[in-house]
Design brief:
heterodimer, A: mainly beta, 4-stranded antiparallel sheet, 11 strands, about 0% helix, globular, B: 6-stranded mixed sheet
Chain lengths: ~110, ~110
C-alpha cells in the first residue's frame, strides 16, 4: 500500500477561521489530489497537483487553495471556513496520473460550526 | 468535460449476482476505474479497463464498451462483506484529472 497520511483525521473549527489539511506521501508519486465526499455527491475533485509547484483546479475549488512545495506534501487550505465545507476530505496519489491506480489516504472529517 | 452516471443504490441477496452499471461521457478516453469503498473507509482499487471486453478477477469482473460509453462491475457469489459503495472513475485525456461518479451503494442481505 502507498504510504499516504492525512492530518488531522478529525477537526472541528468555527466559521470564518482558516484551516489547513495536510497530505503526506512516501511513494514519490507525481500526482496528488484533494477530494471532498458528501452524501449524494460521491467524490468531487477540489484541486490536484501534477508536480512540485504545479497545481490546477477541480470542479469544486471555490473557497479552497492548495500548495505543493515538495513532492511528498500537498496542503489544502480553507481560507475562511463555512458550514458548507463540512465534509470528509480525501487525499489521493497516482504515480504518473491518468491511467495509473490512485491510492487514497484515510480521510479527514472536518466539521465547521 | 466529463459526466459519469451510476445508480444510487442496489440491494441483493447473499450468494446472488449484482451488476453495477456506469455510463460516461468524456472528451478523449483514457480508461475506466472501479473502486470499492466501505463505510467510513478510504476507496480501494478494484479494476481498470482500457480495452473493450470483460476482465475477470475472482468474484469480481469488469466490462467495458468504449463505443457505448458504458461499463459494468459484476459481483458474483455475493458475501456480506461486499456491502459497500462502488465508484466508477474516468481519467481525463488532458490534465489527468481523475473524476468519479456518485457511487453505487450495494447492500447485501442474508
Amino acid at each position: 500500500d502507498a504510504g499516504i497520511t492525512q492530518s488531522p483525521r478529525h477537526k472541528v473549527t468555527e466559521t470564518g477561521t482558516p484551516v489547513t489539511l495536510r497530505c503526506h506521501q512516501t511513494e514519490n508519486h507525481r500526482y496528488m489530489y484533494w477530494y471532498r465526499q458528501d452524501p449524494g455527491h460521491g467524490l468531487r475533485l477540489i484541486h490536484y497537483s501534477y508536480g512540485v509547484k504545479d497545481t490546477d483546479k477541480g470542479e469544486v475549488s471555490d473557497g479552497y487553495s492548495v500548495s505543493r512545495s515538495k513532492t511528498e506534501d500537498f496542503l489544502l487550505t480553507l481560507e475562511s471556513a463555512t458550514s458548507s465545507q463540512t465534509s470528509v476530505y480525501f487525499c489521493a496519489t497516482q504515480m504518473t496520473g491518468g491511467n495509473t491506480e490512485a491510492f487514497f489516504g484515510q480521510g479527514t472529517r472536518l466539521t465547521v460550526v | 468535460g466529463q459526466n459519469i452516471d451510476q445508480p444510487t443504490e442496489m440491494t441483493a441477496t447473499e450468494g446472488a449476482i449484482v451488476q453495477i452499471n456506469c455510463t460516461y461521457q468524456t472528451s478523449g478516453f483514457n480508461g475506466l476505474f472501479w473502486y470499492q469503498q466501505h463505510a467510513g473507509e478510504a476507496p480501494t482499487f478494484l479494476s481498470y479497463n482500457v480495452l473493450d471486453g470483460l476482465e475477470e478477477k475472482g468474484r469480481f469482473s469488469s466490462f467495458l464498451s468504449r463505443s457505448k460509453g458504458y461499463s459494468y462491475l459484476l459481483l458474483k457469489e455475493l458475501q456480506m462483506k461486499d456491502s459497500a459503495s462502488y465508484l466508477c472513475a474516468v481519467p481525463a485525456s488532458a490534465g489527468n484529472k481523475l473524476t468519479f461518479g456518485g457511487g453505487t451503494r450495494v447492500l447485501v442481505k442474508p
